[in-house]
Amino acid sequence: MAEEDPLDYPRLVREALRDVPRQALRLAASEGLPGEHHFYLTFRTSHPGVAISPGLHARYPALMTIVLQHQYRDLAVGEEAFSVTLRFDGAPERLHVPFAALVAFADPSASFGLQFTPGEDGGAEPAATGPGGNVVDIRAFRRRDD
User: Fold this and answer.
1) Each residue of 57-72: pLDDT tens digit?
2) Structural contact between residues 111 and 130, judged by C-beta atoms closer than 8 angstroms
3) Which residue in 22, 53, 65, 127 could disulfide with 137, CB within 3.0 to 4.6 Å?
4) Bridge-partner residues for 111, per DSSP?
5) Which CATH class is domain 9-140?
6) Where are the alpha helices (DSSP H) in the chain?
7) Rounded to whole angstroms, how far apart are CA atoms 73 and 2?
8) Are 10 and 18 spatial neighbours (Cβ–Cβ below 8 Å)?
């Protein structure tokens, strides 16, 4: 088996881009959402470590998108996951979501988004959308040894 390259740039970029939602959520947890900012977070509900109620899991067996804007409570952000309380059909539900379960993160007010799709190594391969709406797919910069 080949030794892992410490300068595995695709891995470093994936880790750096996963830090964007982590930092945005930390800011929201400590100071609230500034101005018109709001977040759409899509995650895999069956990913290890995701904790949602059985009722929510039955309604969303594969993917779930949540919106953090006006009505969220007790947002807590750690290194590996975040937790938040949201209302579904009027009832509060506590969700715990590892960052590794994220499929997409977006802030429509800033025309910003990230998509995380399965990569070749089983990790996530992010693509970023910036203010101009352009998508930067890091696979375009990956060296191919075919």
Assistant:
1) 999 999 999 999 988 9
2) yes
3) 127
4) none
5) mainly beta
6) 9-31, 54-59
7) 46
8) no
Domain boundaries, the chain: 9-140
Please give the biggest Cα pair distance in the chain: 54
Both tokens of 107, joined, read 């802030």
pLDDT tens digits along 104-136: 999 999 999 999 865 444 444 566 665 555 444
Structure tokens at 96: 């715990």
Q: Name the DSSP class of 90.
A: T
Q: In this structure, what are the phi and psi dihedrals at residue 57, rounded to the nearest 5 degrees?
A: -65, -35
Long-range contacts of 28-36 (CB under 8 A, 24+ apart): 28/68, 28/75, 29/75, 29/76, 29/77, 33/68, 33/69, 35/109, 36/109
